[in-house]
Amino acid sequence: MVENSADLDSMHHVAVEVKDIATSVDWYREKFRCEIDYQDDTWAFLRFANLHLALVLPGHHPPHIAFSSAAAIDHPGLKPHRDGTRSVYISDDSGNSVELMDPTSL
């Protein structure tokens, strides 16, 4: 059991598939108070107070959940991304896509 919440990994973002990035960004911005950290034609990254939301197109990025985890640092599949972060995609025991993000790159 972890004694201190500072010792816990943190969830960084959730990525959901959408039909159109611009339309979906507009919808989330109209419904919620959030900021656009990044947006192009294939994905967007929205910042909320406690979490980020990635909007992705089918076939471009898998829908997934992402955690900031030291376990990413030593993973052989760790790769840099265009935003300067480094991560690796794995699957949980039910086949869900999980992104492990290197906390030193955030």
**Overall 3D form:** globular
As for the number of domains, it is 1
Largest sheet: 8 strands, mixed
Helix content: 10-25%
Q: End-to-end distance, in Å? A: 26 Å
Number of distinct helices: 1
Strand and helix layout:
Layout: E1 10-17, H1 21-31, E2 35-39, E3 43-47, E4 52-56, E5 64-68, E6 79-80, E7 86-91, E8 97-101
Parallel strand pairs: 1-4, 5-8
Antiparallel strand pairs: 1-5, 2-3, 3-4, 6-7, 7-8
Short description:
The chain is mostly beta strands and 106 residues long. Helices cover 10% and strands 39% of the residues.
Essential attributes:
8 strands, 2,3-Dihydroxybiphenyl 1,2-Dioxygenase, domain 1, mainly beta, 106 residues, 8-stranded mixed sheet
Provide a descriptive summary of the structure in words.
By secondary structure, this protein is mainly β. The protein has one domain (9-105): 2,3-Dihydroxybiphenyl 1,2-Dioxygenase, domain 1. Helix content is 10%, strand content 39%. The chain has one helix and eight strands. It has one helix at residues 21-31, and strands spanning 10-17, 35-39, 43-47, 52-56, 64-68, 79-80, 86-91, 97-101. It has an eight-stranded mixed sheet, covered by helices on one side. A hairpin with a 5-residue loop joins strand 6 and strand 7. The chain starts with 9 loop residues before the first strand and ends in a 5-residue tail after the last strand. The mean pLDDT is 94.
